[in-house]
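Bug: token stream looks shifted between consecutive jobs. Job 1:
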Amino acid sequence: LNAGPICQHAAQYIMDNGVEFTFGQQLASGAAWTVAGNIQLNSKNYSLKTASTDDAWMLSLIVHEAKHLEQGAPFSGVPLSVEGELEAWQTQYQAMVELANNGIGTAPRRGTHFYNIGHLPSNPTDRDLRVARSEMIAHQGGPLNYLVWVLPLRTKRPPAKAGGFQRLPLKVAFQAEAC
């Protein structure tokens, strides 16, 4: 798949970190990261029979969840903040544009909630994060479908390494939390 740098970065992260894919039920999302550091696709929408490399939405969901893993999920608070969600949604938006530019799916339309999220500043103010939260809730069909409203706006970011965040093995991460 020759999609572009955002999708290629996500694919490289997945391969370098041995991220596995599973299928399971989700409340309203298409995918989620797991505490084991894997990506779970919603079994209501995807299975081994339906998953396809030309399904732009599914590919963009994988990029979104890979971004959360790269942020340090589950041992960093970043993925569990509005700021972390905004970064993942914006990365997903960029992936959708890349895929559309390569003939896979279509880019989000101007004026949609997803488009608006994709065009918020990448270094957001608290006001931008509140706008992002409202757009995410509207895109997902209401606050009961997407619980981003329970997350803090920001959390402390872990130290970055060159090329992204380092994913620690579970045992090492738990030992670091205990210190």
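Job 2, same session, no restart:
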Amino acid sequence: KVFPKADVTLGNVDIGWGLNFKINIEKLALSTTKNNQHVEMMSVEQLVVKVPFWAILTGSGVIEIKLDAPAMNYHEFAEGNNWSYAMGEQKKEEEKKSEDKKVDAASSTSSNSALGLFGSSKINLKLSDVAVKYSLRDNSKGEIKVSKFLIKGLNFETTTAFEIASTANFVMKDNSKVS
């Protein structure tokens, strides 16, 4: 619905029950094709979400989210980019406002109840080997790599710390390189 012109590729999906509810998704990708040019939008080698059973029952506990090798791509076409193209035709402002009011009314109670269910829970988020790539109309391109991005204890009640390690490489339109 959000990306009608995008193709979704999904590898193995394992769901486990026990002391933890666990979802393991391997090889998730989103791409689009314009003028016979295949352009990747995003991909993840592995996504693991682990929710302890007591976090569901008591509204507390530590929820673990791990993403291995997530990649985001931004590619500009002569007009627009891969993300706007994949979203398809944009609706008029009046139609959007009307739909937004319907969605807001329906989702306000469900989002509040979901937050209440996990309101005291903490989230540990670990991303490894992250890549953000871009290519622009003027032929400049670049890549930002994050080898590790870690957030421990993300919650709505106290402060949270995070750690990041990264590198960046850019190729300018005159083919000079900056790192």
